[in-house]
């Protein structure tokens, strides 16, 4: 048996739709694997009742197949499905790391990215890697067709998750097919600002660089209470606020760890005022999947 902890992630960061992602310190999935002649899956934890145990329908089943590594895979979900926190990707990244170790496949974390992304294709229709890559590598990750660039960024953040769900498939349906050149120019500037901010761990640059007028306005309309929650976080000291992944989680960048309490409280209160229950994670951009159980 081998056990790993695979972190939640926040994709897009506003200006980097389908390109940027960060690993979060919390929440996380715990994935345990043991060798078997055919793959079986059990799922416990948050939202497990909505997650199929059929290997053909669970992201980890595709990973086991891609690595030719049949196993019994136990997933203890800490990342709620359809949250915008890369729930399906956390399991896929965890399974990729665990099975790579269990079967001595010898692949690097970067080489595991396309394998873990196979799992994402099962749930969202495309093998996008902007969640699996940061869950595998940690920090801030830029995913393009040409490859993956990773920076060990570390910044305090708050992620507020309402008790509502948005499926990635639905949220991809509202993304505009075309954009005005002026908006594209602004977004390139914001994405560049954010990237420099990540290399400097500068919350002002990262917060400013999350602005986006192309995808985020359409996505945020799917999240009840978004505008008031965003406003409340900014008034409480967040440097930037945007939709996390496909939503409904909302990501706020903070200047210091001690700012997180006020930002989290303001976001929770604003959701509460809108009649929506929510929970807040006071966390940070953090490390990737961690192996912490030896083979036994
Ligand atoms: N191991 C898994 N963990 C979580 N969800 C899974 C898993 N395998 C399959 N699924 C399915 O994936 C869907 C959730 O994935 P989805 O991409 O919509 O949300 P997400 O992973 O939380 O968020 P996002 O990609 O927006 O950050 C659910 O329908 C769920 O049943
Ligand atoms: N980039 C993807 C990530 C989904 O978490 C999207 O926003 O649709």
UniProtKB/TrEMBL annotation:
Q: Which reaction does it catalyse?
A: L-homoserine + ATP = O-phospho-L-homoserine + ADP + H(+)
PANTHER family this protein is in? Answer: HOMOSERINE KINASE, HOMOSERINE/4-DIPHOSPHOCYTIDYL-2-C-METHYL-D-ERYTHRITOL KINASE
Predominant place of localization: cytoplasm
Q: Which GO terms describe its molecular function?
A: ATP binding; homoserine kinase activity
Report the protein's function. Catalyzes the ATP-dependent phosphorylation of L-homoserine to L-homoserine phosphate.
Q: Which GO terms describe its biological process?
A: threonine biosynthetic process
Q: Which UniProt keywords apply?
A: Amino-acid biosynthesis, ATP-binding, Cytoplasm, Kinase, Nucleotide-binding, Threonine biosynthesis, Transferase
Top-level EC class, please?
transferase
Q: Which domain of life is it from?
A: Archaea
What EC number is given for this enzyme?
2.7.1.39
Q: What is this protein called?
A: Homoserine kinase
- Domain GHMP kinase C-terminal positions: 198-271
The GHMP kinase N-terminal domain extends over: 59-139
Which GO CC annotations does the UniProt entry carry? cytoplasm
Pathway assigned in UniProt: Amino-acid biosynthesis; L-threonine biosynthesis; L-threonine from L-aspartate: step 4/5
Q: Where in the cell is it found?
A: Cytoplasm
The record lists ATP as bound by: 80-90
């Amino acid at each position: 048996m081998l056990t790993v902890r695979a972190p939640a992630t926040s994709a897009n960061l506003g200006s980097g739709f389908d390109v940027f992602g960060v690993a979060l310190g919390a929440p996380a999935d715990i994935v345990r694997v043991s060798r078997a002649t055919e793959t079986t899956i059990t799922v416990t934890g948050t939202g497990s009742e909505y997650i199929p145990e059929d290997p053909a329908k669970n992201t980890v089943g595709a990973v086991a197949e891609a690595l030719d590594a049949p196993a019994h895979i136990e997933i203890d979900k800490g990342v709620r499905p359809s949250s915008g926190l890369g729930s399906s990707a956390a399991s896929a990244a965890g399974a990729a790391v665990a099975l790579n170790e269990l079967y001595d496949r010898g692949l690097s974390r970067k080489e595991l990215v396309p394998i873990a992304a196979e799992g994402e294709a099962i749930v969202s229709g495309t093998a996008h890697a902007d969640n699996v890559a940061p869950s595998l590598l940690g920090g801030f990750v830029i995913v393009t067709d040409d490859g993956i660039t990773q920076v060990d960024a570390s910044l305090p953040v708050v992620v507020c998750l309402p008790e509502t769900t948005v499926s990635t498939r639905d949220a991809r349906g509202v993304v505009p097919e075309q954009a005005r050149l002026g908006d594209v120019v602004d977004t390139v500037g914001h994405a560049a600002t954010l990237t420099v901010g990540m290399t400097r761990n500068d919350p002002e640059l990262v917060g400013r660089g999350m602005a986006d007028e192309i995808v985020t306005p359409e996505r945020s309309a799917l999240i009840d209470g978004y505008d008031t929650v965003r406003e409340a976080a900014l008034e409480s000291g967040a440097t930037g606020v945007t939709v996390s992944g496909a939503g409904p989680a909302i990501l706020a960048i903070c200047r210091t760890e001690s700012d997180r309490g006020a930002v989290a409280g303001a976001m929770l209160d604003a959701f509460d005022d809108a009649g929506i229950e929510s929970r807040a994670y006071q966390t940070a951009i953090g490390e990737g999947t961690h192996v912490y159980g030896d083979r036994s």
